[in-house]
From TrEMBL:
Pfam family, one: GtaA_6_Hairpin
Protein name: Glutaminase GtaA
Residue span, Glutaminase A N-terminal domain: 21-252
Lineage start: Eukaryota, Fungi, Dikarya, Ascomycota, Pezizomycotina
Annotated source species: Purpureocillium takamizusanense
SUPFAM superfamilies recorded: Six-hairpin glycosidases
Domain Glutaminase A central: 258-488
GO BP term (any one): carbohydrate metabolic process
Length: 542
């Protein structure tokens, strides 16, 4: 999307639009042609077959804007840098055509499964493709050779450089070009796809004694050769589905809050789904989450927790599929009596058999309890809770021990360091204890349910007495108990239905945005008497 080497700056970007699934750039080319480049990353929350395909579309369309016809050729390439984060690594490639799709396949020659270099996978195959149509040409070679060929001739030679070499050795690129012929006021377009295929995606320590390789989910539906052609030929369906999903998210968000909220929710979709790896089998899918933009932890509980609202909104099964690796590993390999923070460093979900994960015990116990209840309520799946009762009861024991007066520990804001008596952590634990009351009732443990409710009420009374700065106008929560002049945002009260303090019937608005005002505060007041709750500002989350 930058200037060609040695070219004048003749292209001006005139607009950028984005949706939940697209980024659309519009360019003015020397006041003669308008070029629109659409990047589409489909999201299929209820279609595992399509969601399993790790690929994106780039659709380029052009039309004349000066009333004349123009001869237009489109060129695009990707470089060997996609294949490895180590520019000294040797890469290999090939070019072929299948089912009217021309593709370049390239990959690291020395495949290193379950290894990353500079956060780029060191195993798997990349596919850069376009339609094998009239006017298409292709070439693999050094960046200067291939790009100069197109600049000088408007097409590529079809030559395939067979000198496999390091990424930085004369920088191999994989070029595709299309001659659109003469273009007038009616737009013409050409489509490219970029995809990544790994046979095995995750190294996972489950219930077995040794870790196992978990296959990519696409293998349940495709062979690798057909994966590329299926995705390319599915563009019309992908466009239709993306239009519907984009509209649904905008409409529901605007109905719930307004256009500014829609701006936020549309930004969130690709951020969440881009971090997910869909694996295992059609009958037993597992979803692994990479903690991006930080330290690459895998299955971080307090990173899954902020994704809970979009999972509930789009497909609650995503919650179960994402929590299952944590539950399986935790039942067999985690020694502590609280919920673990993560399963290791992506893509190695081997857990922490020594219990030496990042210490967020109250944070993660509360997160797991609330997420599991949210899934079970939405799916009417009491058996899910019954099957995991032993772990849930264990975590509840820790909550009883620590939620009233939290020990010195981290919260999800781990950059702030350890801190004791955090009001935000305490209210999370209190909410989770009331959630355990609901879970106990749903699984036939009535006596435990009464006990959890009793403890939650007692702890909430204490929290109100020691956690609220009543001298402030208006009163506000303190960062720590009995620390007037401090404050902290009680983010743990701003979470999606079903709210464990009431589990009342949801409205459509509450499905999209649930706030302290709508969901949490009234049930707290009912527990302790009307007007007893702290005065907090609403804050919506999807």
């Amino acid at each position: 999307m930058g200037d060609a080497p040695g070219a004048e700056a003749l292209v001006n970007q005139t607009s950028l639009k984005y949706t939940s699934t697209r980024s659309i750039f519009t360019f003015n080319v020397v006041n003669k042609v308008q070029m629109t480049v659409e990047f589409l990353s489909p999201v299929y929350p209820d279609d595992l077959r399509r969601q399993s395909v790790t690929s994106s579309y780039i659709n380029v369309s052009v039309k004349s804007i000066d009333g004349k016809t123009h001869s237009v050729q489109i060129y695009s390439d990707v470089s060997g840098e996609w294949a490895s984060g180590d520019n000294g690594a040797i890469i290999q490639w090939e070019s072929a055509s299948n089912d009217v799709v021309r593709y370049h396949k390239f990959y690291r020659q020395d495949q290193q499964p379950f290894t990353e270099s500079n956060e780029v996978a060191s195993w798997g195959n990349w596919y850069w493709a376009t339609g094998d149509l009239h006017g298409v040409s292709y070439q693999i070679g050094s960046d200067t050779d291939v790009r100069s060929q197109f600049l000088n001739k408007g097409s590529l030679t079809g030559e395939i450089d067979t000198n496999f070499r390091a990424v930085r050795d004369r920088w191999p690129v994989f070029g595709l070009a299309r001659d659109l012929g003469f273009v007038a006021g009616t737009a013409k377009s050409t489509l490219f796809t970029i995809g990544f295929a790994q046979e095995d995606a995750i190294n996972f320590q489950g219930k077995e004694y040794n870790p196992r390789s978990v296959p990519s989910l696409w293998r349940a539906y495709f062979n690798e050769k057909d994966l590329v052609t299926f995705f390319y030929n599915d563009f019309d369906y992908a466009t239709h589905y993306a239009n519907d999903l984009d509209l649904r998210i905008v409409t529901d968000s605007e109905e719930a809050v307004g256009p500014h909220y829609a701006t936020i929710t549309t930004l969130a979709v690709r951020q969440v789904f881009g971090a997910l790896s869909f694996t295992n089998t059609e009958d037993s899918p597992l979803v692994f989450l990479k903690e991006i933009s930080s330290n690459s932890d895998i299955q971080t509980v307090d990173v899954i927790f902020p994704a809970l609202p979009i999972f509930l909104y789009l497909n609650p099964d995503l919650i179960k599929w994402t929590l299952e690796p944590l539950l399986e590993n935790g039942q067999h390999h985690y020694p502590n009596n609280w919920a673990q923070h993560d399963l290791g460093t992506f893509p190695n979900a081997v857990g922490h058999p020594k219990g030496d994960d990042e210490p967020m015990p109250l944070e993660e116990c509360g997160n797991m309890v609330v997420m599991m209840l949210a899934y079970a309520k939405r799916k009417h799946d009491d058996q899910y809770l019954a099957d995991n009762w032993e772990l849930l009861e264990q975590w509840a024991g820790y909550l009883i021990q620590d939620a009233k007066i939290p020990a010195n520990q981290l919260s999800t804001d781990d950059f702030a360091g350890h801190l004791a008596n955090q009001t935000n952590l305490a209210i999370k634990g209190i909410i989770a204890l009331k959630a355990m009351s609901e879970i106990a009732n749903m699984t036939g443990h009535g006596e435990d349910a009464s006990n959890y409710t009793k403890i939650a009420r007692e702890y909430l009374d204490f929290w109100k007495e020691h956690g609220i700065d009543r001298k402030n106008n208006p009163p506000r929560t303190m960062l720590q108990y009995d620390s007037p002049g401090t404050y902290g945002r009680t983010t743990h009260t701003h979470k999606p239905a079903p709210n464990p303090l009431s589990l009342k019937k949801r409205t459509k608005k509450e499905d999209v945005m649930l706030t302290w005002t709508v969901i949490i505060r009234p049930p707290v007041q009912r527990l302790l008497g009307q007007g007893a709750g702290p005065r907090l500002h609403p804050a919506g989350h999807l």
